[in-house]
Every structure is written in C-alpha cells, then in structure tokens.
UniProtKB/TrEMBL annotation:
It is found in: Cytoplasm. Residues 1-46, 503-545 are annotated as: Disordered. The gene is xseA. It is an enzyme of class 3 (hydrolase). Residues 45-138 form the OB-fold nucleic acid binding domain. InterPro entries: Exonuc_VII_L (IPR003753), Exonuc_VII_lsu_C (IPR020579), OB-fold_nuc-bd_dom (IPR025824). The keyword Cytoplasm applies. This is Exodeoxyribonuclease 7 large subunit.
Length: 545
C-alpha cells in the first residue's frame, strides 16, 4: 500500500558534458546504487494500469464508510443523478448519488446542510480524483434538522397549505373512523380503548411504518388511500381520519415533517386529526391537519363525544321539552277559555243563518217562476210579428229576378267597350316592340360612328410621337403663324400641355426658329423633359416638335 501511493522519483538525464564511462564502471555504479537498479528492473506501467490499481485498492480498503460533512455545489443532472461535495474546514470530498438511490434518500439534499452519508470510496480515472458513491443520507445533528424544518415550514406556508380557510370541521359523530398508525404499537390500543369508553364506532386501521426509511411514503399513501375509497363500496369511506404516533426525538418524528406527508394531509378531503408525539412535540403535519391533538388519546376524545353524556343531555332536553309543552298547552287553554267567553252561542248563530237560508231559497224559487212567465209572453209577441218563411222566400226570389234583368242590360253595354280597350292595349304593345327594335338599330349605328370618329381623331396621331402646337387662343398654328415671342401651348400624347415662347436668331417664324419654355406644365400634366438648345446643325423642323 505504501509503495503504491509513494511518489515516484523523476529520472535525471545524464549530462552531455560528463565523460563517457566504461562498461565496467557502469556495472560498478549499478551495484553501488540499488535505487537505480530497482528503477531499471521494474516494469513500466501504463496510466490505465496504475489508475485501475488505485481504483481497486480504494474500493477494497473503503468498501463501506460513513462520512460527515456540509453539502456544497449541489447539482441535479437531467438524467436524475445527483452530484455534490462534502466539505469541512480542511478538505472537500466529491459525492455521487445515482438516480436509483436518489429517489430513496430520506433527506432532501440542500446546500449548507450538514449530513452523514453512507457509501463506498472509488476513483474516477478520467480526472484522477477520488469520490464517494452514496446510497443513504441522514441529517447530522438536531440543529441541522431544526434549520431544515424551519425552511420547509416557511416554504409550505408560502404555498398556503397551513391557511385556516383550508381547514374543515370535524364531524360531531362519525360513523367510521380511519386510523393511520403502526398496528403493533400502544397507540392503536389507546385509541381503541378510548373510543370504546366514550362512544364505540367502527374503526378502519391502515398499518404503516411511523419511523425510518419509507415511513413518510407509507403515511402519505395511507391518507390518499382512505380518500380514494368509495363511500358506497364494500369498505366504507371514513368520516374522520386520525394520524397518530407515540412520542420520540426529533429524528424519530421526522417522517411526519416530510413534504409528501404534509401535502397529503393538506389535500385530504376527509377531515383529519393529527396526534403525533406528546403535547410538546410539534410536526409539520400538525399545521396542515384540520385539528391537532396533543396525544393519540386526546385525538380519540376529539373524534367522538361521550355516549353517557349525550344520553343524559338528550334526557335533560326531553324533560325540558315536555315541561315546556305542558306549560304552553296550559297557557293556550287559558287563552281559549278567555276568548270563548266573549263569543256568542254557536248553536244560536247556526239557527239564525239556517232560517235566513230557507227564506232566500223560497224567494229565489218564486222569482224564477215569474221570470219564466215574463219571457214566455215576450216570445209569443215576437213570434207573432215575424213574417212566414214562405213569404220571405217569395220576396227574395222577386228581388233576385230584378237584379238579373239589370245585370243583363248592363253587360250588353260594358262588354263591347272592354273588348275595344283590350284590342287597343294589344296594338300598343306591338308598337312598343317595334320602337325597341328601332332603338337597338340606332344604338348600333351610333357605336359604329363612334369607332370611326375615334379612328380619325388626332389623339391617335399624338400616340405615334407627334404633338399639337396651339396659340394662346387655342387655335392650331403652322410655321407661318409663329413669330419671335409668340406664346405656344404644346400638347403631347399623355395629355401634358407645355406653355412656351418662340424665339431664335433666324428669320421670324422661319424654320430655324427656337422654342423657349416660359411656364411649368399645367396641373395634372407630366413635366416635359428638358430640351437642349438648338444648334446650327439641327434639322429644318427645329425644336418645335
């Protein structure tokens, strides 16, 4: 081991200025310097071989160690592995936790947290450093636990998990009570004994670990499992939950400070009573639960009332109701008797009303008979005034004959007139058709003339590169009409009109005359390109075009 980790001495090259030695001297030197002989005879190891030897020696010598230190440089890789360092005041040790073990750690690693890790020492030849691969972690010391507890409490409180508006009312008398605790401890016996003394109820126990690795996950799964039960299923859903554990140290109760347990208690739809530890013990589940009990026995007392007290209270209320009913009935009886003295005899009232009813019936019968006699006499008088139906039919026949004669006379006069008017309208319709045909022909002739007019228009000539020169009065000018100083209006194919003044050194109005623009183009016309001054070599037409 000492030879393996000893620092190799570098070989020194012989000096070039040193005199050469004979073979005998070399052999003598080798015999006198055993270190040189050992270095010469030892086989040369490769870098991989020496690294493998170191790695094998480390893993054999430090196969299982526990190391205490402060976490720093925590990194969570995308693959799920955790890389960090453990340090104290004198040294730093690299730490690796593979993904499979990272999810099983009982402590959530954080920078600055002092922990104790368990694992094996190994080396990483790629960087020539050594490291520890851990599979478990625990908090070192109660002070570090309290610090972690306070930080976790602040984090969960900021999310609103401890808010009072989230807490539910515990049912007064639940039918079924669910208990999450260890099935072998004294806690479940205390709860059952207290429930049987106060008010026996049906109890469902979900056995869990209450301490050590995996305890927090089991408690959280139990709470979620009770909430997932069907209220109408074979296993009834509890009306109240009790999460209980006996007293212990902060480390023993740490499972009930885990975030997974606190979130399960806060998200429980069933009202939950936490009874973890003794009265002086406080865990984070106490803040997330709907009610905190100082002990498991007190939790059973909060869950159900005392049956004997309820029976006594019910009996007391029954006696009070019976006494109150008797008193109320006596008061009402006295009031009825007092009111009865002020009322007349009901029999006398009924007799008077009966006599009045008989009188009204008799009067109604007499009135009905007189009314019928009167209506019968009026009907006889009216029937005598009406004519006989045969007479009415005869009069109507005469009237119809008179109307028929009048209709025949009128129809002989009106029908010829209406026939004449219809013939007149028909001839007018034929005349309107001929008029429309003439209009269509005239329209076609007008269109042909428009095409001819457009063909002979000077606009088409302008489009071939020519222009029109007009005077100030708008008349077209020729070369004989232009003199020096004549104002000109030149129109081009794009409807642009340029105002110019004729001028030059030739004869007035001659072909060698020049044009000098005076004004800008009119509004809406494009600006004409600038023209160069005419030279003596210009054509006879000059710059007029």
């Amino acid at each position: 081991m000492n030879d393996l980790f000893s620092t190799p001495r570098p070989k020194t090259a012989p000096s070039k200025a040193a005199p050469s030695k004979t073979a005998g001297s070399k052999s003598a030197d080798k015999g006198n310097n055993p270190a040189d002989a050992r270095g010469t005879n030892a086989p040369a190891l490769s870098v991989s071989e020496i690294s493998s030897s170191i790695k094998r020696e480390l893993e054999t010598r430090f196969d299982r160690v526990r190391v205490r230190g402060e976490i720093s440089g925590l990194k969570r890789a995308a693959s799920g592995h955790i890389y960090m360092s453990l340090k104290d005041e004198n040294a730093v040790l690299s730490v690796i936790c593979w993904r499979g073990q990272a999810s099983k750690l009982s402590v959530d690693p954080q920078d600055g947290l002092e922990v104790i890790v368990t694992g094996r020492i190994t080396s990483y030849p790629g960087r020539s450093n050594y490291q520890i691969v851990i599979d478990s972690m625990e908090v070192a010391g109660e002070g570090a636990l309290l610090k972690l507890l306070q930080e976790r409490k602040k984090k969960l409180a900021s999310e609103g998990l401890f808010a009072d508006e989230r807490k539910r009312v515990i049912p007064f008398l639940p039918e079924v009570i669910g208990v999450v605790t260890s099935p072998t401890g004294a806690v479940i016996r205390d709860i059952m004994h207290r429930l049987s003394d106060r008010f026996p109820r049906r109890v469902l126990v979900w056995p869990v670990l209450v301490q050590g690795d995996g305890a927090a996950e089991q408690v959280a799964n139990a709470i979620d499992g009770f909430n997932a039960l069907d209220p109408n299923g074979d296993i009834p859903r509890p009306d109240t939950l009790i999460v209980a554990r006996g007293g212990g140290s902060l480390e023993d109760l740490w499972a009930f400070n885990e975030e997974v347990v606190v979130r399960a208690a806060a998200n429980s739809k069933i009202p939950l009573i936490s009874a973890v530890g003794h009265e002086t013990d406080t865990t984070l589940i106490d803040f997330a639960s709907d009610k905190r009990a100082p002990t498991p026995t007190a939790a059973a007392e909060m869950a159900v009332p005392v049956r004997a007290e309820l029976i006594g209270e019910v009996q007391n209320i029954g006696r009070r109701i019976y006494a109150g009913a008797n008193r109320l009935m006596g008061e009402r009886r006295m009031q009825v008797e007092a009111l009865a003295r002020g009322l007349p005899d009901p029999r006398r009232l009924i007799e008077e009303k009966t006599q009045r009813l008989d009188d009204r019936v008799e009067r109604m019968r007499n009135a009905m008979k007189g009314f019928l006699r009167h209506q019968t006499s009026e009907l006889s008088e009216l029937s005598a005034r009406l004519p006989h139906p045969k007479q009415q039919i005869l009069l109507a026949s005469h009237h119809l004959s008179a109307l028929s004669d009048r209709f025949d006379g009128v129809s002989e006069q009106i029908i010829p007139v209406r026939q004449f008017e219809m013939e007149k309208l028909d001839s007018g319709r034929r005349m309107s058709s001929a008029t429309a045909l003439r209009l269509e022909r005239a329209k076609n002739e007008l269109t042909s003339l428009e095409r001819v007019l457009e063909g002979v228009s000077y606009k088409n000539v302008l489009k071939r590169g020519f222009s029109v020169v007009r005077g100030a009065d708008g008349n077209v000018l020729t070369t004989t009409d232009i003199s020096d100083g004549t104002k000109l209006n030149i129109e081009f194919a794009d409807n642009a009109v340029i105002e110019a003044v004729a001028g030059g050194d030739g004869e007035t109005g001659g072909p060698s005359g020049s044009m000098t623009p005076k004004t800008t183009p009119k509004s809406g016309a494009k600006k004409a390109p600038k023209t160069k001054k005419s030279d003596a070599s210009d054509t006879a037409q000059g710059s007029l075009l």
